[in-house]
Amino acid sequence: MATIERIAIPLPTGFDPRKHSAGLLKLICDRHGDGWEIDNIDLGASRATASRQAAITQVSASESERESFDVRLARGTRPTDGDRMAAKLEDQYPGHVMSRFDVHLGLATLTRMDAPTIRCRGAVAQALGVKPWEVRCRPRADGGFDLGLPNRYMPSRHDGKLDEVATAVVGRPGWYVTVDPAALTASLIPSEPPTFPALIPYPLADLSTTDRDRLMFGRRLPAAGARLGSVAEIDWKAQAFALVAGLPGSGKSVTLNAIIAGSLASGSELCVIDLPAKSLDFAWCKDMVRPGGWGCDNAEAAVTALALVYAEGERRARVLAAEGVVNWLELPQERQFAPILVVVDEVTALLVPRRVPAGIPRDHPLKVEVDQENIPKAALDRFINKIVAELRFVGIRLVLSSQVANNSTGIGPSLKAKIGHKILVGSNPSRQARTQAFNDETSVPHVPPTIRADCDAAKGSGCAELEGTAPYVFKSFYAASDDYRAALLRLGVPTTGQPEPTARQIAQHTDSLRVDEALLAPRGARRGADADPDGEPVTDRNGRPLRGIAAANARSSRLQNRS
């Protein structure tokens, strides 16, 4: 069915468009009726072409029986008449909607649509800010919808709105959208919400091929429509330090064990720092640490284990300086160092100093005892900060584990800013916990509500903000400690008969940290600042005790007199 009539008119000799066009148009209208317009004049061929649009909206009865048919629009129909024409035509042909409206061609198309398709088309049109007939929509066999998008579609502006249509308007959580921006097509596809299985076994069979520099520790949340997510991994080349945070029972130890197993399998040395009571989580790999790398028996052992790592880092730095390179990865492959993974668990208990109630004298046994306990904590804090600040280029990798990451728990802003990989284990952490753990909490996705509501799926899940990749939701791999150990022994991971620092090493690195034992004795039984070398009080001529410099001078004078 033609919507525009066209005719060709021969031109007489000497025709001048500037003088004769109006007369030509009048001649055409006199012969053929009103509504004609001259489209073009070809003087070379001595011919003019004219056209006109139908005077009224026309549709044949036979066409109205089909699924889709065209109608000719009346002459004078304007672009702003779309809503009026849609209402008029859709009322005239129930079950059909206007799916095309082109006033320039004088054409509209009516298409039969069911109610869900009409609802989808309308929701998409509203989301994109266009008229419904600018969106093509047809149902899919799986219950979803295929779309044709208008030219004004922009991914950055409209993808989020299309997701909302899919999951909250025409579908439900789990539905997803695929878009081809170049072709201006999209599909709303039904699916169940992505989730995790109750358990994701660690792929122990793949330990032998573990990448030294890309450490897998779990799986990401599957993409919409997928059953299994990609591997969650730490890129040690992008950054050498990581933070694993999470409340008790959230699964931090499971995550740490996966990190330890992968590191040992790929040739890394291991150093573990922990409280004696908590070190049971890592007892399975105690004899797999580097000699002296088990810093879990007491505070002195912890300080010594870190001191040995720091000393090795300094040695490596000297080697790099001699080789004229600034990073261990620049050395030839056969001469590169074995990475050292340092795991510091329970950072808060290890680093945060005890407080002494106000009013207790400086030389009171309780104050001295607390000072003795706090000195190793300060030493640990010092070594951790020095390793992070100075030894990132020698192959030392550090993982700090803490329930909360803030200044009062041993991980202050300065230290946190130097740590690139941040993992928060737990399916429903508070906003404060997320803010303290991540650099930009707003950019890190949350564990979906459907997973949080499923206890099995939620266990071991969390969020990761890692260098070299966009933030994501993950679930840690799991394997029993015995299975990790057996698999690593089969690979030939070396063991040591001396995991703890030796007494000599401890003495070498911690003697300067000890408080004089005399200060720990009962106050009345020890020699204080007001006693001479024989224990006699040092007083002035009036019998009043002397302290500080005065007491020191008096003792010196007494010794000179005795000599």
Explain what this protein looks like in three dimensions:
The strands form 4 sheets. Strands 12-11-20-19-18-13-17-16-14-15 form a 10-stranded mixed β-sheet. Mean pLDDT is 87; it is low at 523-530. The chain has helices at 17-32, 82-92, 115-128, 155-169, 252-265, 299-323, 347-351, 365-390, 413-417, 431-437, 449-452, 455-458, 481-490, 503-510, 548-562, and strands at 4-10, 37-42, 47-53, 68-72, 96-102, 107-112, 136-139, 145-148, 176-180, 185-189, 214-220, 231-235, 241-245, 269-273, 294-295, 340-344, 396-402, 421-425, 461-465, 472-476. α6 packs parallel to α8 (365-390). The protein has 15 helices and 20 strands. The longest helix is centred in the last third of the chain and has 26 residues, at 365-390. It is an alpha+beta fold and 563 residues long. Among the domains are: 4-53, Cell Cycle, Chain A; 204-355 and 362-511, Rossmann fold (3-Layer(aba) Sandwich); 525-562, no CATH class. A hairpin with a 4-residue loop joins β5 (96-102) and β6.
List the main descriptive attributes of the protein structure presented here:
563 residues, alpha+beta, DNA binding, P-loop_NTPase, ATP binding, 15 helices, AAA+_ATPase, single chain, Cell Cycle, Chain A, four-stranded antiparallel beta sheet, Rossmann fold, elongated, cell cycle, ten-stranded mixed beta sheet
